[in-house]
User: Fold this.
Amino acid sequence: MLTSAIGLRGMLMHYSHRSLGMGNGVTLIRAALVAVLAGAVVAAQPATWAVFALACTAFALDGLDGWLARRSGLTSAFGARFDMEIDALLGAVLALILLTDGHVGPEILFLGFTRYAFVVASLFLPKLRAALPDSLRRKTICVIQIAVLIALICPLTPLWLMAPLSWGAAGLLLWSFASDTRWLLGRR
Assistant:
């Protein structure tokens, strides 16, 4: 409900097209899937095949929304931001599922909440609020981050592989955020 309200507010203020478009429609479907996954956190549901399948579906649809928006000529800053925030929310929910599952420690929260830590930091460092240029590095590391979280949720992932996967992805994520932070703070 909160995600919908924030999305509607952003759309009313920043969306320049007359129609929602299929790209944003797919992002809304992804938001709904994330909401269902959040139920696994509240229910303290362990990572099951159903949770894994929902996470894979939400992840797979991530590549479709932008393609549909470009194909229909309905790309927008709102759509890109909406997509990014649903990606961040998916990461946070997957991290919480993993934490409640008990097979990883609280370090998994780094993979799920770095975006939100960056937002909080921007409240104190206004330079962090500036727009960043498109970055293949940032997009690639986001894909790796979500893919690792999904791999960790997979019931077939061996326990011995969980720590190296999570710490490796966390290292990449830290490097990416540090690069962006350095760039933003260095701007005049």
